Every structure is written in structure tokens, then in C-alpha cells.
Amino acid sequence: MSETLSQFKSPNLARSLKYAWNGLMVAFLKEKNLRWQAVAFVIVLVLGWAAGLSAVEFCLIVLVSSAVFAMEFMNSAIEYLCDVVHPEFHQSIGFAKDIAAAGVLVMSICALLIGGLLLVPKLIGL
Fold first, then answer.
1. pTM of the entire predicted model
2. Which residues contact 119 (CB under 8 A, 6 or more apart)?
3. What are the Cα distances from residue 58, in Å, to 9, 46, 64, 115, 126?
4. Using one digit for the tens of pLDDT, what is the confidence trace for 31-89?
5. 75: which of 20, 22, 100, 106 fits an S-S bond (Cβ 3.0–4.6 Å)?
6. What separation in angstroms does the CA of 72 have from each of 35, 39, 93?
7. Given a cut of 80, is residue 2 above it in pLDDT?
């Protein structure tokens, strides 16, 4: 069994990075929500720059935004895997997909709150 599994492991860092890059490209090409999140991220970065966020505040924005992206990648991976493992409707598969989507929602709300707390006071001059 380990011989069979070992053939799927990445033999080196370059190949691992290639697979990760492929995943990134597939996600951005196929997942509309991810593209919208990328647009929102760029807008938030521009607003942060305009508002004069400190380096620490910028890091917080990048950190929570990256967490949203990571959750979206995991959600998409779970959805693709569920569709292959069980293509027809099954309640448990639906629950798995919904729970994965809930993770994205929770992290998105967290990012929105943190972004709002950092940006709004500076943008309105408080």
C-alpha cells in the first residue's frame, strides 16, 4: 500500500510548487466567488493605503484576507471531492458542502469586521 501511495507524493519542492500553482489557477478560473474576493481584496488594499493604515494594520488586513482565500480554497476542494466521490445527491454530502461553505462565511464575516474596524474610522476621519 505504501508503494502505491508513494507514487502520488511530490518528489521535490519544485513539483509541489507546480501542483500548488495549478490549484491556484484552477480555482481562479473556475470559482467566481474567489475572483470576487480577489477584487474585494485589491479594493481593501487601496482603501488601506488611502487611509494610511500602519504596517501592523496592513498585516492584519492581509492576514484575514488570506484566511478567507484559504477557506475558499478548502471549500472548493471539498466540493470537488464530494462531487467525485458521490455524484448523485446525498444528504450527508450536502451537509459537508454546507459546513465547508459556512467556514468561508464565518471567516468572511470576521474579515469584514476587522477590515471595518481598521478602515472606517480612518476613512471618515475619526
1. 0.84
2. 44, 47, 48, 51, 53
3. 36, 11, 10, 10, 18
4. 999 999 999 999 999 999 999 999 999 999 999 999 999 999 999 999 999 999 999 99
5. 100
6. 11, 14, 17
7. no
Residue 46 and residue 105 share a domain: yes
Q: Report how many domains make up the chain.
A: 2
Question: 37 and 75 in one domain?
Answer: yes
Contacts 24+ apart (CB under 8 A), 56-64: 57/118, 60/114, 60/118, 61/114, 61/115, 61/118, 64/107, 64/110, 64/111, 64/114, 64/115
Helices (runs of H) and strands (runs of E) counted in the chain = 5, 0
Q: What is the C-alpha separation between 82 and 96, in angstroms, rounded?
A: 8
Rg over alpha carbons for the chain, rounded to the nearest Å, is 18
Condensed to tens digits (0 to 9), the pLDDT of residues 100-125 reads 999 999 999 999 999 999 999 998 88
Owning domain of residue 70:
31-123
| Distances from the Cα of 54 to the Cα of 47, 51, 119, angstroms | 12, 9, 11
Judgement on whether residues 54 and 98 belong to the same structural domain of the protein? yes
